[in-house]
Specification:
Length: about 150
Amino acid sequence: MHDFLHKLPQFIGNHVALAALFAILLAGLIVVQVSLLFGKVKELTPGGLTHLINRDNPLLIDLSAIADYEKMHVPGARHVLMSQFDPEHKDLAKAKELPVVVMDKDGRGNSAKAAQRLVKAGFLKVYTLGGGVLSWHAAQLPVAKGKQ
């Protein structure tokens, strides 16, 4: 270990761009993790969502494309197109006190944007499903098919 620390300044001096890139990536990773830890939107695993469903009966919103939703979705999830997603809608506004879980096909789509919009609209318990419906299916949890 002592040898490593002794040679580290020489390595950094010889590879300034590489060391700078490493520092930038490390800082970015820290910022993302801190924002996840202290952010108002929490990411759930499929097991965490199962626990939340059993405990609190949350409102489940699926923002997947309609074809993906009809192939498979979490049982009880309501399909909403992102273009029609409105946190101020009268039906959704009634659920401000309920836990709301927003999901999409793979967790990389519109769920994070929709969750942030819910937080800005005053929703208190907002979650996303990490990995989306695909992670739910990969965890071998039951899926529903069709329009509802």
